[in-house]
Amino acid sequence: MKIIRYADDFVVMVHGSRADAEALWDEVAAVLAPMGLRLSVEKSRVCHVDDGLDFLGFRIQRKVKPGTTKKYVYTWPSKKALASIVGKVRMLTRRRRHRTLADLLHHLTPVLRGWCDYFRHGVSKRTFSYLGYYTWWKVVTWMRKRHHGLGWGVFHRRFLPDWQVNDGTATLFRPDTVEVTRYRYRGAKIDTPWAWRKPESVTAAMA
Question: Residue of 142, 174, 175, 202 with fewest CB within 10 Å of its CB?
């Protein structure tokens, strides 16, 4: 088995049966107890990698690669993570929240860029395209409400001549332009603090 941890979130990957995984409940609880922690039964479960799981905002699932019969483990932004960023965009594009388009764009850019930078190592291109489409329409809707009564043709010629949203000083960040660099397994090349040590080293440390 292997453990993957970040802060107090962790996943234990088991190469075995469901019974092997179920047997770890008590062991995990025993390890956490001395640290004053307890295992959250509501947030924890045993599942198969083919069924998938959510971890640190990513959906992790083994699936058949299109056009082949081989299975690979894929990671992409989870539905919860996507709903979170969509909610932030919706909140930032409320009509009365910003006085100018530049102010709106300056607030949106770091939120979108940070989210995309985090998820750019997964299978995220389709999600980025959807987020870019959604954000563009929310901003354009915000602009049209500030120019109430202006026909779409006039509005398009005046504010969206090349379909890009900008006010001369700031441009709407486009998630679909973010380059996706898929993560590749590096195995033993990643150092671990739990690396094996010689017995004498352990004795010296204990002394």
Answer: 202
Closest to 74 in 3D by CA, of 188, 189, 183: 183
For residue 43, how far is the Cα from the chain centroid? Answer: 18
Tell me how far apart the alpha carbons of residues 160 and 158 are, in angstroms, rounded to a whole number.
Answer: 6
The pTM of this model reads 0.81
Q: For the chain, state the CA radius of gyration.
A: 24
Strand partners, 60: 53, 75
pLDDT digits (tens, 9 = 90+) for 108-164: 999 999 999 999 999 999 999 999 999 999 999 999 888 888 898 888 888 888 888
- Asked if residue 76 lies in contact with residue 59, where contact means CB atoms within 8 angstroms, the answer is yes
Q: How far apart are CA 38 and CA 106, in angstroms?
A: 42
Question: Which pairs with CB-CB distance under 8 Å and at least 24 residues apart come from 46-54?
Answer: 46/18, 46/21, 46/22, 48/18, 49/13, 49/73, 53/11, 54/78, 54/80
- H-type alpha helices, the chain: 18-22, 24-32, 79-92, 101-119, 125-146, 152-159, 199-206
* Residue 67, both tokens: 């056009």
User: Tokens 């995990």 map to which residue?
Assistant: 28
The tens digit of pLDDT for each residue in 66-100 reads 899 999 999 999 999 999 999 999 999 987 777 88
φ, ψ (nearest 5 deg) of residue 40? -80, 110
DSSP bridge partners of 171: 166
